[in-house]
## 1
Amino acid sequence: MATKLPKKPPVAPAKQPHHDDGNSVVMERRTQKVKPPQMYQVVMLNDDYTPMEFVVVTIQEFFAKDLETATQIMLKIHLDGRGVCGVYTRDIAATKVDQVLEAAYKAGHPLKCVSEPVDL
Ligand code: TYC
C-alpha cells in the first residue's frame, strides 16, 4: 500500500497586474463616525442622618465595590460632601441612581445620589 504524502498547500494564483480601464468605481475612505457614548458618573451626596454602615453596604451592593473601596468612597463623601461611586452609560447610571434612592427610601434614610455627565 502506498504511503500517503501530506498534501502540499495550494499555491495562490499569481496576481495579475491591475489595469484601470477608467470605468472603475473607487470608494472613498471615510473617517470613523461612531463616537464612544457620553459617560455618566453616579455621585452620592452626604447628609447628617444616613448611617455610614448603610452607605458602605449600598456602595458594595450597587457599585460592586469591595469593603475597603466602599469605605473609602463613603469617607470621601462624608468629608467632601460628595463622591463618585461609578461611571456608566446614561441608562445604567440612571438605574443605579433609582436603585440607591429606592433602597434608602425603604430603609428610611435620606441618602441621595445623582448622575451627571462626565466631561472629557
Ligand atoms: N454623614 C453621615 C454620618 O455621619 C454618613 C454619610 C456618608 C451619609 C456618606 C451619606 O452619602 C453619605 N452618619
## 2
Amino acid sequence: MRLRRAVAAALIILVALAAHWGGLLRPLNHALTSLRMYSEPRQPTGDVVVVDIDAKSIATIGSWPWPRRLHAELIDRLVELGASDIAFDIDFSAATNPTDDAALEAAIARAAGKITLAAFVQKQTTGADSAVAFNRPLARFAKNAWMGSVNVRQDSDGIVRQFGYGLILDGKVIPSIPSILAGGISRTGREFSIDFSIDTRAIDRISLIDVLRGTVDPQRLAGKKVIVGAQAVELRDFFNVPVAGTISGAMLQAAATETLLQGRALEPSSVWVEVAGLMLIALAVLAIGRVRWSTMVAALIAIAALTEAAAAMIQKEYAFATNTAPWHVAFATFAIAVLVSEIDIRELLQNMWRLRASNAEALLTKVVADNFAGVVVVDETGIVRAASRSASELLNLRRSLIGAAAREVLPPELMAGIDAVMAVPEFDRVSRRPSVTVLTRRDGQERAIEHVTTVSEVESVPAEGGGLRRQRVATVTFTDVTEQRAAEAQIAYMARFDALTELPNRNLVIERLEDVFASKDTAVRASAVVCLDLDGFKNVNDSLGHQTGDLLLQAVAQKATAILPHGAMVARLGGDEFAAIFSGKTASEDAVEFATRAVHKVNLPFDIAGHRILISASAGVALADARDRGPDDILKRADVALSRAKANGGNGVAIFERRMLEAVVERQKLELDLWQALEREEFEVWYQPQVELRTGRVAGVEALLRWRHPDRGLVMPGDFIPVAEAIGLIDELGQWVLETACAEVATWPADVRLAVNVSSAQFARCDMAALVASALEKGNLPASRLDLEITESVFLQPSSTLHDVLTSLRSMGVGIALDDFGTGYSSLGYLQKFPITKIKLDRQFVADLPANAGSAAIVRAVASLARELKLQLNAEGVEMVAQVAFLNAYGIDEVQGYLYGRPAPARDIIGTLEPSTEGVARLRA
Ligand code: C2E
Ligand code: CA
Ligand code: CA
C-alpha cells in the first residue's frame, strides 16, 4: 500500500513536471493568471493619459503622416497644459521637409527633459542575410529627448503579456517608454508581465485633435504622463492582450506604464515554488490515510480551489503570478489515481453488467411476453419473473402473471412440473419431453394442455441487490391442445370405426386379431372369426335406394350386436360384409352359435322406412389354425367358408374346411382357363330348336354356349357364365356368341329365327344396340330374324339408357324375349314399360305339369297375360308329351325342350329344321 502510494506520488510529480517543462501547461498557466486578473480588477493611477491619433483626428487633418509641425504644436500645447512627460509612440526616424522637422526640433528643445521618442529594433530581411535594424529618431530630435524602446513581444499564441524594461543596443541602454515614464526602473534586458487587472478602459484617452483645438479640460493633462500614439484602425498599431482584448500600441504602453507605476510588474513564479508545491502534494499523498474515494476527490477539488484562491490572493496582494497549473495537474492526476484505485473495479463492472443484464432482460421479457405459446418463467423463490400474454389467456387468468407467486396463480399440475425440475440436482438431466394434462380452468372448462418444464441456470443480480448469483429458473412452456386432441381422437376413431354403423371397421378387426395372435395365453389365441354377408343386398340397394340400404345395414348391425357374446367384437368390413371375432376357450362354439343366430335373425323381416324387407344372410366360420400367419389368414378362411355358404344357396352357415380352399384354388384355375379359352377357340355355339306348337315346325333356334376344354371336357354355361360375368369376360364372350350365331344362322332357311342370350352385365357395360347392329351386318342376318333373350335382372340395374337401347333394338326389328319368366321379381310393370315381344316361361313351371295345380295355374295366368298384352309365349323345358298336351290346351305358341331336341352343334341341328313327320305325328297323338 505504502509502496503503491509512493509510486503514485512519484508518478504524479513526474507527470506534472513533465507537463510543465514540456510547455504543455503554459496555456493553463496563462489562463489561470488571466483569470485572476479578470477576477480582481483594479483602477489605474490616473497619471497616465493616452493621446490618440484617432480616426477623428486623421479625418480632421486630412492626411497621414502629418506635417511634423503639428507634432511640434502638440508638444507646445501639452507643455502648456502642464503634462509632466510626453512620450511619442511615433516613428520619427526619417527626415521630412526641413521646416516641419525644424519646428519639431524646436518644440522638443523647448520641452527639454519631458519628451521621450520611440525607438525600436526591427529584424530586416533584405535578401539572404537578416540583420537587426535599429530604428531610432533623427539625431536633431533625439538630442533633447529621451529615447524609449517600444518593442512589443508576442507570445507564441499571438497574445502580448510581457513588456521589456528596456534593451541594450551596441552597449547603450535604451529603457522602454513605460520604464522611462514610470521613473527610471532599469532592469534592462528583462521583461515583466503587464498586470491586466488594471482596467485599461479607465485610462484616460484624449483625441489628439481636441488637444490641438484646445477643447480639452486642462485638468486632464496637468501633471500627467502622456503617451501619444496611433489609435486609428487604419494605422494598424493593435495588439491582443489578456482581459482587455485588443488594444492600441499606445494603450499597451500605458498599461505597462501603469503596471510599473503601481508596482504590479508581475514576477514570474519560480520553478522552486512549483517544485516545492509538488513535493508538498507528494508528501500529502503519502501521508493521507485511507478515505473514501469520493471524500478524497472532494478534498482534492477543495484543495485545488483553495490553492487557486491563495494564488489569486498572492497575485493581487504581492503581484506574484504563481504557476499553479502543475499543482492542478498533480491534483487531477491524483484524483484520477484515486478514482482508478479506490473505485471498486468489480463494482464498476458489476454495474455495467447490471445495465447490460437489464437490457437483455428487457428484451427477453418482451420476447417472452409476445410468445405464441404460454411461457412462464419462475425463479428459485417461486416468483414469476416473465410470462407471455398467451399464458394468461390459456389459463384464463385476467391478470399478468409477472411478479406473482407461481404457486398461487399456476394450476397445480404445472406447479408440480416446476417443483420437479427445481428438485433435480443436475439440471441437464431434466426431461424435455412434453406431456399432456387435462386441467380444469378457473372458468370450469376442461382443457388439454401440453406442457414441458425446462430449467436454466442463470447468473443474475438479485432484486434485493448484492453481487451476481447463479440461480435456477424453471420455464414452463405450454399450449392448449384441446381441439387438436379432439381432432386427433376423431381421426383415430374414424380410422378404426365405421361411420355408418358405428361398429369397428376392418382396421380395428386386424388390430384386435393381431393382439389375439400375439397373446401368450393359448386360450386367448384359440380364436374364431365369423364373416357374415347379406344375400342379394345389392338388389335392395338397387330397388329401394341407397338410403334404405344404409338403414338396413344399421339394423343388421344392431341385430348382430344384440346377440354378440361378451368379449367378442363385431365389425363392418365394408359393403354388406360383417365380421365377428371371438377368443378364448369357447371361441369356436361361440362363433358357430353367433353365425347361426345371426343368419336366423337376419332372416326375420325388417321394417325399414316403410318397407318390409325380406333378406337372408350367409355366414362363414373359421377357427384359429396353427398354420395362420396373421389376421389376414383367418379372415380369408372365414371368407372362403362364407363363399361356400353362398354357393350352397345362401341363408346358411358354413364352417371352414381345408377342402374349401381347394374349391377356391379350383375356381382360380377356372378363371385362368376361361381367360384363355376365347383365344384358344374353345367355345362353341350350340343350338336348341324352338318349335311352333301349332304346326310342329322349327320356328327358331336358341344359341347356347358350350366350352370344350381339353381336360374338363364339355363345360356347361351354368358352370362358367357366372364366372365370365364375375371376371369381366362376358362382354367379349357375348359379342363372340352374337357374331358367330348370326353368321351361322344367316345361312339357314330364312324362316328360322335366332335367339341369343344376353347377360344383364353386358347391357350395363356395352352399347348393345351398336353391337347387335354390327353383328347382324357382319353375319348378314336380317334384324327381324333375331331375338335377344334377357332376364328380369336387367331391369334391376339402374340404367337410364336401358329403355332407349331396347327401343332402338326394337325399331331395328330385333325381338326382345323375357327369359326365365316367373323366377325373378316378376314385376308385371316391366312388361308394359319395356318393348318386350316374347315371354319365356321358366321351365320350373313346365316340369311338374300337369300334375302340380300351382304350376298349372301359373301357366294359365301367364298364358292369358301374354294374350292380353299381345306377347308371344314360349314354354321351356318340355320333356314329356303330357306337358305338350297341357300347354296346347292353353294355346301356348312355342315350345322348347329335350322332347323336341337337345342343344346341339350347328351341323347336327340343320337336319332337324324340316319338320319331321315323326314329330308331327307325336304332336297329333
Ligand atoms: P336358358 O337361357 O334358360 O337356356 C335354356 C337351358 O335349358 C339350357 O341349358 C338348355 O340346355 C336347357 N334345356 C332345354 N330344354 C330342356 C329340357 O327339356 N329339360 C332340361 N332339364 N333342360 C332343358 P344350358 O345350355 O346349360 O344353359 C344354361 C343357361 O346358360 C341358359 O339358360 C342361359 O341362361 C345361359 N347361357 C347359355 N348360353 C349363353 C350365352 O351364349 N350367353 C349368355 N349370356 N348366357 C347363356
Ligand atoms: Ca335362354
Ligand atoms: Ca330360360
## 3
Amino acid sequence: MGSAVVLGIESSCDETGAGLVRDGRLLGHAVASSMDEHARFGGVVPEIASRAHLHALRPVVRQALEQAGLRLADIGAVAVTTGPGLSGALQVGLAGAKGIAYALGVPLYGVHHLAGHVAADTLEHGPLPDPCMVLIVSGGHTSLLLVRDLARAPITHLGDTLDDAAGECFDKVARVFGLPYPGGPAIDRAARTGDPRAVSFPRPLPGSYDFSFSGLKTAAARWAEGHAERELPVADGAASLQEAVADVLTRKAVAACVEHGVGTLVVVGGVAANSRMRSLAEERCRAAGIELRVPPLRLCTDNGAMIAAVGDLLVRAGAAPAPLDVSIDPSAPLEYAALHPVAMGKAVAA
Ligand code: KG4
Ligand code: ZN
C-alpha cells in the first residue's frame, strides 16, 4: 500500500507555507512572506501577519498542488503547525488546515514548529540517523537536541538559550548597525567585505550546553555607540559578530557530539542559512570526523514542506491524528514532534 500525500501548513510567524510530501519525498511547496510589510516597523507586527496569512493561505496551497501536479482530492492527510508562534497567525493556519481536513475527510496532525525545522533536512538528505545531534538556530530559539526517532521518541534538550536566541541577536544588532530587517541576512551580506577579527566580541560560553547571546548583543551595541561621531565600519562589525555567534554555536554542537558519541550533526532553522555558520560547522565537523547535515537554504527558513515532512513521518509511524477541536499552543515546549497525544498504532507499510 502506498503512503498518503501529506499537506503541510505553516503560519507561525511571517511566512505562509504549504508543502506536499509523500514517503519522505517533497512533491511541491510554496511560501508567501509578509516580511516586506513588517520591514518599516523593524519587526513582525502580529496583526499584519495574521491578515497576510488569511490572504496567502489558499494561494500557497494551490501553488504547491500545481507544482506537484496534484489536486486537493489527492491529499490523504493534513499537518499544521499548532505552536509555538504568534497566536493569531497560528489560528489562521489551524483554521485553514481544519477546513481542508474536514472537507476532504482526512486525518489532521498538529505539529511542533521546531520539529518541522528538524524534519526539513530529511527532504534533502533522507531519514535522520538514530541518534543524531540537532542544533536549532532560529529567530526565537537556540537549542541543542539529542534526537532519536522523531515521530515516536521524546526529544532530549541538552542545552537551550538562557536569554536571546541567535537569530534574535542578529536581528537586534542589525537594527543598531542601521541594517534592514530581517537582520540575519543583512548581517550576512554586510559581513562579506568585513574582517572577522576586526572586533573581539565576547564568546559567551555559559556552563553546560546552554547558550546566552544577550551579552554579545549588548557588546555589539556598545561598540556601535562608541562610533557615534565617526562612520560605523558596519562590514567589520557584522563579520566579527557573525564570527562570534558561529564560533560559540559550532564549538558547543561539536563538543556535544563528541561527548555523546553521536556521529551526525544536523544544523537547522533560519540561522543555518548563515554563510559563516555553514563554513565553520563544516570545518569543525570535518576535523572531528562528524557528518554534517544542513538543509538547503530554501528549507532552512520557515516553510510548509517541513511541516508536511513531520506529518509524513507521523502518518508512516501510525500515529493517532489530532481531534478536530485541537487548539494552538503559542508557547509549546519541544518534547515531541506532534503537539497532541499520538498513541502509535500499527505502522503503515510503505
Ligand atoms: O527559522 P526562521 O525562519 O524563523 C523562526 O522560526 O524564527 O528563522 C528566522 C531567523 C531570523 O532571526 C533571521 O534573521 C535569521 O533566521 N536568518 C539569518 C540568516 N537568514 C535568516 N541569520 C543569519 N544569517 C542568515 N543568512
Ligand atoms: Zn522557524
